[in-house]
Amino acid sequence: MNGINNTNTNNNERGLLPYPIILAANQGNPEAMHTVIQHYDSYIASLSMRKLQDEQGNIYWGLDEDMRNRLRSKLMQSVLVFKI
Fold it and tell me: Which residue has the higher pLDDT, 9 or 48?
């Protein structure tokens, strides 16, 4: 789909995605779906932060990759079943 890469969603991450991108993602366009995921990626990363423990018992904040992948998957499922 032409124009998806030209849409500036990185500078306005908290803003709404343009309707044509949502529509294209809903219809299964992989490029549009990538744009949707990229738009919400930092929010998904912040939701995926967990307290983790290393081998020495030190506790630190880290990214739970399993949670991140589950949230991305749920986002994709929600976009695909969204009633337009």
Answer: 48
In angstroms, what CA-CA distances link 27 with 9, 16, 42, 68, 70?
20, 19, 24, 24, 21
Q: Are 47 and 71 in contact (CB under 8 A)?
A: yes
User: Mean pLDDT for the chain?
Assistant: 88
No. of H helices and E strands in the chain?
Answer: 3, 2
36 in Cβ contact with 21 (< 8 Å): yes
* pLDDT at residue 84, rounded to an integer: 74
Q: What are the Cα distances from residue 57, in Å, to 50, 53, 54, 60?
A: 15, 6, 5, 10
Return the bridge partners of 50, or none: 62
